[in-house]
Amino acid sequence: xxxxxxxxxxxxxxxxxxxxxxxxxxxxxxxxxxxxxxxxxxxxxxxxxxxxxxxxxxxxxxxxxxxxxxxxxxxxxxxxxxxxxxxxxxxxxxxxxxxxxxxxxxxxxxxxxxxxxxxxxxxxxxxxxxxxxxxxxxxxxxxxxxxxxxxxxxxxxxxxxxxxxxxxxxxxxxxxxxxxxxxxxxxxxxxxxxxxxxxxxxxxxxxxxxxxxxxxxxxxxxxxxxxxxxxxxxxxxxxxxxxxxxxxxxxxxxxxxxxxxxxxxxxxxxxxxxxxxxxxxxxxxxxxxxxxxxxxxxxxxxxxxxxxxxxxxxxxxxxxxxxxxxxxxxxxxxxxxxxxxxxxxxxxxxxxxxxxxxxxxxxxxxxxxxxxxxxxxxxxxxxxxxxxxxxxxxxxxxxxxxxxxxxxxxxxxxxxxxxxxxxxxxxxxxxxxxxxxxxxxxxxxxxxxxxxxxxxxxxxxxxxxxxxxxxxxxxxxxxxxxxxxxxxxxxxxxxxxxxxxxxxxxxxxxxxxxxxxxxxxxxxxxxxxxxxxxxxxxxxxxxxxxxxxxxxxxxxxxxxxxxxxxxxxxxxxxxxxxxxxxxxxxxxxxxxxxxxxxxxxxxxxxxxxxxxxxxxxxxxxxxxxxxxxxxxxxxxxxxxxxxxxxxxxxxxxxxxxxxxxxxxxxxxxxxxxxxxxxxxxxxxxxxxxxxxxxxxxxxxxxxxxxxxxxxxxxxxxxxxxxxxxxxxxxx
Length: 731
What we know:
alpha/beta
């Protein structure tokens, strides 16, 4: 089963919710494309007869009537003919921003050599703009305006814009705003029943889905072409704008309310391009249009000609004339088929996403992987169905992609976190073994599991035993704080272990505060004695660092400081190494007399007052490698019958090349020779010389030991067959 990792999906859910609130471009576009798919699958149902017609300045009209702009008398003729046909209202998706250059007076002024009477007659004729204004005044016409990115001074004769009343907070901060307006020439502007902006701002991806119903321009809130046509049709003198803390909610006219998004935009419920909606301007001018096609209709005058650059991309059509976008918005508004994404839609989507994600998190430990996947599929189907039904039945746009995507990401997080948790578990096991075995062994065992079998092989190996001196006394100080004792052990065992592993050693086992390790297995190590000696010296350095930290902590905390001291024994010789134990539990370990002697040597380090005691094989190799080594004694350790020559490791090549060790080595060798030849006076003299140097090398206790022996042998000489062998009484 898929079980949730502790708390992991919850922060992810929080991040996803924050992303939805932020609503970056990819999230918004995914949501918008989903709404596009709805409109493609279920476009708005077309009326048997379009309620809004378009007089189209198309390619045929430009070919027959000439390039745009036409003389305003031609446009006036179109207005007159539409009015005569009984239209409900006319809206211009074009702007007449400059005086008509074809007006008689302007033509008369531009011609030279014209008969004065003819010139006067032309100048007395009304301008083309006045002709158009007369036609507009005789009809019900809403002129188009366009928003500009730069401010344009308004004419002092410009008529006032439609009044906007606001019910709620000021909408200026929510709606799209522009500095200026491109208006019609004053004569035409004053004749119109209304004026509205026809500016359309596409979405981020260039598709037109929403059209502003009010916009900010030139410091005022101005209705757009669609809203102004509706206002004129209802006979209202102003528009009511309803707002709340989230933004604009709707615009209202007497007996009519149009829902908007928070930015004052209306979602257009598109249907496919309808050629029956379009009438060529050429046919209107020619008088060949059946008036019955226009009677009682709203007529928009605009263009579909490619050269006039007013084509848009919509969810249902790759190319749709901008005038048709306005026509579709008007028609969907009149038939109450507009789409609506309420201001609270984001809150609903976030709540659903959170509920589904929490359900997945809660059910994950209970359900199996397949059941959880099936549950997710059912939830996804329900979300898509709910979103689709709200669109089809109510025209409400609720996004299912965010809840789906967020819950899917939560599910993936659960799956992958479980996967990584299992991987981490395996790595933790590997890491746990890595605390005891060398990395090379761990890697070798990982690649060759068959090596984990009972049995062993003979090898010459270097064995190390280390033990903390006086640890029983230290333990007593922690008798009421066992956790503190455990922490202390981990604190010093960790650096000691790392020192061994860094020098290619393998940890065999921990025995309380003691460590057993070895070199030259499972992989060959041709410099095993050198690496073991380096590890021993590094252990002493790391333990000194731990002691310095503990002393500082004790001083700061006002409690007793007991230093940690370690003794190390190293011995090289033949051993049997391999996986040893039972068929149920076995360890990679080493056995043999070499191991036993290494353990005894560690036990003698305190007796001789040195840190590291070496067996003969290790000492010989260490001296060849340049380490500072001196002979300690000829000793018969407990449990053995043959004596062993043991040595002390005092440092690395740097110590060996120093003046102190050079002097000590000579005096020490002479002292050992005098001692074994029963020259007690000479031994005393050499002991004194060694004591003078030994302090720097921290082995003064060794010469105290030999001084006591010489004094004892003066009083009671050893037997005649004495060969200098000391019999150890303890391990």
